[in-house]
């Protein structure tokens, strides 16, 4: 079997580099890069992607070895029929690791064709850090890196307005384009880069609020031999996902003009306001994902499909969506919300996707803040009581972040501050230095984790403590049964 590269696959031609992309993980490759590949093949867009490694660790070695090539395997239902297709994606031209290729990263800003900037640095990725300085090569935070790149472009082209960029962040935070723009302006002001640069950021660049939607499960271990035999190449970056996809983009008319998605069959919508779409998608689909990770994992389940096949846990997730999350979505008719919930659960049941819970668990604390905390607050406001299922999901997250369960280590992956805080307080509790309630209260007060003091929410620390004690004493299944309406299990 041949190693996949541009020579063996006879795909030597590369389009002009027009897109800079922060991140090269499974989702971006199976969503954005796949879309731009279709845009290149079906329209006259003609642009390739330069992938920027946003963090210091790793170097996207496989992506370099395969010269930007990889296959995407998609399965699902399209217009009532099962579809299964494997596509060779050719849209990535090269990879730059700014921690070792800083000058090459800055040189990219001098490319007159560079126009689009994509990012997916998780919910924790778009933030300002006072410790980042312009002298660092590179600074730590993604917006700081982008600010320096944009400033270099501004200087190189003498502030020409037509050398601004269209920025499409894919992070699942509210008004992601506005937040990224605000953060860049904060760096520009903090670093005293001048009013002319600030005006150029505001007038020559287009920061779009976007909403992305596709379940991407990663490398399909169980089906890989079959797929690799079909394509005839060894592809270590083969990535599987569902056929369903949606990209909602809120931006000015020029964005739609320059991105001719309307000439394809891709499900890309340009809207005047993405707020309501985002709220429904993030609260339902992403909220369910974030809740099921610690609950499912502590229940001995390892994939989304296993969660949906488990009657007890799947019923819990269904009730979470229909009884707690769905009723908070006031800007859509109930039948629309119910249909989206139904479609979401069907997507979770896709038998071809092996979506590991541990993969979804990346940065679970910031995901809880973005995906479930607003719903929890709305439930309290609307019902004047804590939503027991969301609180239980948070309780399980606390237990998950102890780092071990049933004598097995859990591969936690979150920002160091969050992991350190959980580790410190769990150890203090285990050493009997603090009580269960004190541990929970200390963690809820940690604003570096939650962005605010959650211990001010009446009864929350007591409810989490009660759940943790019940899990320890009776086991997670028993507690879920107590929370779940057992009639729905009959």
Main sheet makeup: 6 strands, parallel
Strand element count:
17
Average the pLDDT over all residues and give the rounded result: 94
Radius of gyration in whole Å, from Cα? Answer: 23 Å
Strand line-up across the major sheet = 6-3-2-7-8-9
Shape: globular
Count of DSSP helices?
A: 21
Q: What structural class do helix, strand and pairing data support? A: alpha/beta
Oligomer: single chain
- What portion of the residues fall into strands of 2 or more residues? 5-15%
The low-pLDDT segments are: 486-490
Termini Cα gap:
51 Å
Element layout with pairings:
Elements (H helix, E strand, L loop, with lengths): L1 E2 L13 E6 L3 H17 L5 E5 L8 H5 L4 E9 L2 E9 L2 E5 L5 H6 L8 E4 L22 H15 L9 E4 L6 H15 L4 H10 L1 E2 L1 E5 L2 E3 L5 H8 L1 E2 L4 E4 L3 E5 L2 H6 L9 E4 L3 H24 L5 H6 L1 H15 L8 H15 L8 H4 L3 H8 L1 H11 L4 H13 L3 E2 L2 E2 L6 H15 L5 H9 L2 H4 L9 H15 L1 H8 L7
Parallel strand pairs: 1-12, 2-3, 2-7, 3-6, 4-13, 7-8, 8-9, 14-15
Antiparallel strand pairs: 4-5, 10-14, 11-13, 16-17
Helix pairs in contact: 4-5, 5-6, 9-11, 9-12, 9-14, 9-16, 16-20, 17-18, 18-20, 20-21
What does this structure look like?
The chain is α/β, with parallel strands linked by helices and 490 residues long. Helices cover 47% and strands 15% of the residues. It contains 21 helices and 17 strands. The strands form five sheets. A six-stranded parallel sheet has the order 6-3-2-7-8-9. A hairpin with a 2-residue loop joins strand 4 and strand 5 (81-89). Helix 9 crosses helix 14 and helix 20 crosses helix 21 (476-483). The radius of gyration is 23 Å and the shape is globular. Mean pLDDT is 94; it is low at 486-490.
């Amino acid at each position: 079997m041949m190693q996949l590269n541009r020579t063996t696959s006879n795909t030597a031609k590369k389009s002009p580099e027009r897109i800079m992309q922060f991140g090269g993980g499974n989702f971006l490759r199976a969503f954005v890069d796949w879309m731009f590949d279709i845009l290149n093949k079906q329209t006259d867009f003609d642009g390739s992607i330069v992938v920027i490694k946003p963090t210091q660790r790793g170097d996207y070695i496989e992506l370099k070895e395969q010269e930007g090539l990889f296959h995407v395997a998609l399965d699902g239902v399209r217009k009532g029929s099962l579809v299964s297709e494997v596509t060779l994606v050719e849209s990535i031209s090269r990879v730059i690791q700014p921690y070792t290729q800083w000058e090459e990263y800055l040189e990219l800003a001098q490319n007159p064709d560079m126009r689009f900037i994509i990012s997916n640095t998780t919910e924790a990725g778009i933030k300002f850090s006072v410790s980042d300085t312009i002298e660092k090569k590179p600074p730590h935070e993604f917006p700081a890196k982008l600010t320096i790149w944009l400033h270099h472009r501004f200087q190189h082209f003498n502030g020409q307005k037509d050398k601004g960029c269209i920025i499409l962040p894919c992070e699942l935070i509210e008004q992601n384009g506005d937040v990224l723009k605000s953060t860049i302006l904060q760096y520009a002001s903090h670093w005293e880069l001048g009013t002319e640069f600030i005006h150029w950021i505001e007038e020559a660049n287009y920061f779009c609020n976007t909403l992305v939607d596709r379940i991407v499960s990663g490398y399909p271990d169980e089906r890989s031999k079959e797929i690799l035999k079909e394509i005839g190449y060894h592809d270590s970056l083969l990535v599987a996902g569902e056929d369903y996809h949606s990209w909602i983009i809120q931006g000015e008319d020029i964005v739609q003009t320059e991105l001719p998605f309307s000439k394809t069959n891709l499900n890309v919508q340009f809207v005047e306001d993405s707020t309501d779409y985002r709220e429904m998608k993030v609260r339902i689909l992403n909220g369910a994902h974030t809740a099921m990770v610690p609950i499912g994992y502590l229940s001995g389940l390892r994939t989304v499909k296993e969660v949906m096949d488990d009657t007890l846990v799947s019923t819990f997730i269904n009730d979470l969506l229909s009884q707690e999350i769905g009723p908070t979505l006031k800007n859509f008719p109930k039948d629309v919300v119910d249909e989206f919930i139904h479609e979401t659960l069907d997507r979770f049941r896709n038998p071809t996707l092996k979506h590991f819970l541990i993969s979804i668990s990346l940065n679970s604390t910031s995901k809880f803040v973005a995906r479930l905390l607003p719903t929890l607050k709305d439930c309290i406001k609307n019902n004047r009581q804590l939503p027991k299922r969301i609180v239980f999901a948070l309780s399980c997250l606390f237990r998950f972040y102890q780092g071990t369960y049933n004598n097995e280590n859990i591969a936690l992956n979150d920002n160091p501050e969050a992991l350190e805080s959980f580790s410190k307080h769990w150890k203090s509790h285990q050493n009997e230095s603090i009580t269960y309630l004190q541990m929970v209260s200390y963690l809820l007060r940690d604003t570096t984790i939650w962005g605010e003091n959650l211990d001010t929410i009446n009864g929350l620390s007591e409810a989490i403590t009660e759940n943790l004690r019940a899990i320890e004493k009776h086991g997670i299944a028993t507690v879920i049964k107590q929370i779940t309406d057992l009639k729905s299990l009959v």
